Amino acid sequence: MTEDQLPPESEFDDDSNNYENEPISYRGSTNDPLFGLLIACAVAIGLAPIIGSEAFDLRFTIVWGLLAGFSILSWLLGSGPRIEHDYPENLAWGVIFALILVVPLLGFGGTTFSEAAGLMFQDMTIGSALAFLVFVMPLSETLFFRGVLQQNRPFWQVALFCTLFQLLLFFPLIDRGPYPLIIGITLLMSNMMYSYVCQRNGLAAAWFCQITVNVALIFFPFVTR
Q1: pTM of the entire structure?
Q2: SS3 of residue 107 by DSSP
Q3: Cβ burial, residue 43 (10 Å; 0-12/13-18/19+)
Q4: Which of 16-30, 58-72, 77-91, 205-219 has the lowest mean pLDDT?
Q5: Distance between terminal CA atoms of the chain?
Q6: Which of 172, 214, 196 is nearest to 47 (CA)?
Q7: How far is CA 78 from CA 30, 73, 75, 119, 206, in A?
Q8: DSSP of 64-88, one letter per residue?
Q9: I need a surface site. Which of 42, 117, 202, 208 has the fewest CB within 10 A?
Q10: Whole-angstrom Cα distance, residue 220 to residue 82?
């Protein structure tokens, strides 16, 4: 091939520039987070036989720990949004939305929530229940459902996924009388609220919202039952 037949150098330059400008896609960024949710649900079912034993709280630790682990791996290896500066008013809105939900529920069903909290956490110590409700549960579920799953799905769909997961986790403990229906409706309303707050005010606001609801609807009724 003569020099006249060679393509101009600009064509080679353009191709090389295109390759250099293409974003690097990590394998973790293309994995569907629902796979992690399925694993956590399977583990929750597999550990159901330890319910009623002295180590029943280990089931909560492992399942919520799996969600937190999947969330951290997705954040480290994926291409999701990074943590940004938040504002105190967003956190305040999270607490306000939680109170809007909590006050009417406690006003009409305080005794029911006391009995349900006793079933959900059985004979767990007050310190252990507080640790699960303030740190373990809100952190893992906020990171996974609102931080990872909600990036590519509408908030109502994420709320449904989270409610189904929680029912699977708590159903063997509350399978008495009307409690599955009452707790299921309450969980669905709460998760709708968390996902909406995340969309409106950010991830930290949704985290504060869930902590407030957990303390008001579960922890205080658990302590005073």
Answers
A1: 0.83
A2: helix
A3: middle
A4: 16-30
A5: 90
A6: 172
A7: 8, 8, 5, 38, 21
A8: HHHHHHHHHHHHHHS-PPPP----H
A9: 42
A10: 34
